[in-house]
Amino acid sequence: MNLIITCARHLESETKQEFIDILEKIGDSEPIISITNMSGILTAETKLDPIEVVKRIKEMIKDEPWCIRYCLRIIPIQKVTETDIESIEDEILELLKLISNEESYRISIEKRNSNISSQEIISRVAKKIKNKVSLEFPDKVVLIEVMGNKTGIAVVKNTDILSVEKTKRSLSE
Question: pTM of the prediction?
Answer without folding.
Answer: 0.94
